[in-house]
Amino acid sequence: MPSHTYTRQLPVGEPTDVLVVGSGPSGLGAALAAARNGASVRLVERFGFLGGNLTAGLVGPCMTSFSLDGTVQLVRGIFDEFVRRMVRVGGAVHPSETRSGSPYSGFMVYGHEAVTPFDPEAAKMVALDMCEEAGVELLLHTFVADALTEERRVTGVVVGNKSGLGVLPATTVIDCTGDGDVAARAGAGFDLGRDGDGRMQPMTLFFRVGDVDDDAVRAYQDAHPDERFPFQGLVEEAGADGSFTLPRRGIQLFKTLEPGVWRINTTRVLGLDGTDAGDLTTGEITARRQVVELMRFFRDRLPGMRNCKLLDTAATIGVRETRRVRGEHLLTLDELTSGRSFEDTIAVAGYPVDIHSPTGPNGPFDDGIPPTANIYEIPYRSLVPRDLDNLLLSGRCVSATHEALAAIRVMPPSFAMGEAAGVAAALARRDGVLPRAVDVPELQRLLLAQGAYLGPRFESAALR
Ligand SMILES: Cc1cc2nc3c(=O)[nH]c(=O)nc-3n(C[C@H](O)[C@H](O)[C@H](O)COP(=O)(O)OP(=O)(O)OC[C@H]3O[C@@H](n4cnc5c(N)ncnc54)[C@H](O)[C@@H]3O)c2cc1C
């Protein structure tokens, strides 16, 4: 490809202790935790509102924040506070009140205990309120396009927005872009896709439908308990007679708080790379055409959906998987299935490995991957990139294998990882050390004191 050298003097913003890039679940956790622990924090987000996939992606419900068996709430701290505040404004149901197999869980049983249905508008406002109360400085409508480095340090990021180009310097940067954009631009090593062929999980554009007859949808599911995915029989029938085809084995639909309104997680675009703008464009166009096809299929063939209407589509296609930045520890499937203990555990989760096939109609949960432990641990070292000293990772771009990431990528663990990264960045500032050198027992103590849960091993520590 031809290239062009471009030299320009850029304005440099006021430095902050911590710069969080991306305001999805992990960015919110990171920014709030860092600010509450005394750091000056700037949160940069490309959209004009906060929330990432919680809002822009229309993704929901939040998958389980409980153990796999649904008995113990594992993700607490900022996530729980966020949910309770949405509940207070009528914008969520607390996960302790939802059960697997129910409409809120999309009739799924495995891994679907204690999900959190929520309203994306409530998420936007609660996120904004919490950031303002914590003193987080927001910079919206701003895309981070590059990173400036000196040896192993990120000295600042290059942003583009309506004001033009600029540089934002910070002592510590937390990459919560989902795609590891900052880490990659700063030269950190990363992996893309599964071992063998490098293929990534498909993209999906969420949309919402209204005027659904909730009782009729439920009656169909009750009458077909053997179908692994909702409406699987009808999808297969339509596939066989050629009237509808999509690389899916059923319809993934989740009831929202509004009667007659469901979120649909069913478009599927295979073979694309979410770090490539051309592929993202193809994904958006293809998925939007799939929405039209799905609406036709719903009205023609699905009980309870004959009169349904399209309410909205997400502001962006959802990208399940891109860069997994190489960190000090690579979290593996074995570690999740065995429930391995780590000395530097900073979060626990119970959501199983959820892979939508990168190449075909399967998934999730029909790929023979063994169940994860009832409670598994995430170590701090998976948030610490191997190649950079003052950057932390959080959320979807942390150091994990394709399989392990497919479990920890969901929104509650992303909040928990963000909270840990934020506390770690503030602790590094307090102690005058690099994030990779923070006192881990002190990090764990602070997390526990602030309401996080790190598993049964840490229960007595939490009481001290
Ligand atoms: C189709 C799909 C279905 C899913 N289903 C569920 C589900 O039902 N329940 C669940 O709990 N999880 C689900 N997930 C997983 C979950 O949504 C994500 O893995 C999770 O949101 C990751 O959080 P994050 O903060 O790392 O990233 P994100 O939520 O993606 O947030 C990243 C933020 O960074 C911003 N950003 C990115 N790059 C830049 C940049 N260069 N400059 C400035 N800003 C930037 C984005 O705008 C965004 O706000 C699903 C994901 C997808 C894609």
CATH topology of the largest domain: FAD/NAD(P)-binding domain
Name the poorly predicted regions: none
**CATH superfamily annotation of the largest domain:** FAD/NAD(P)-binding domain
Strand content: 15-25%
Separation of termini?
Answer: 60 Å
User: Which CATH C-level class of the largest domain is it?
Assistant: Alpha Beta
Overall strand count: 17
Named once each, the bound ligands are: flavin-adenine dinucleotide
Number of helices: 12
Content-based structural category: alpha/beta
Residues in helices, as a percent range:
25-40%
Please tell me the CATH architecture of the largest domain by its name. Answer: 3-Layer(bba) Sandwich
Overall pLDDT confidence? 97
Tally of structural domains: 2
Computed over alpha carbons, the radius of gyration is 21 Å
Shape: globular
For the sheet with most strands, the description reads: 7 strands, mixed
Features:
464 residues, alpha/beta, FAD/NAD(P)-binding domain, 2 domains, 7-stranded mixed sheet, 4-stranded antiparallel sheet, binds flavin-adenine dinucleotide
